[in-house]
Amino acid sequence: MKKYEVTDFLVNESFLDYVINKSDAGVDYWERTARDEHPELADIAEKAKKIILFENEDKSCLMQDESEDLKKRIFYSIQKNKTI
Description:
Layout: H1 6-10, H2 13-21, H3 24-37, H4 42-53, H5 64-82
Helix pairs in contact: 2-3
């Protein structure tokens, strides 16, 4: 199995949808995957989730347009760094 890193989750559209929009299908898939199918990914996925949600002491929330902008910036930054 591929060795996954946090950045793999940060550019995965399905994972971003799961974290930001909490779609039922995404929740079912990602929580089942981390819990049952690939528990070794749980810690990495949780780190990525915290980055996406900017989890900090004041539990900031993102508005929908801010979430979309964040997804674009994360994806752009990671893709840019892969080409360097």
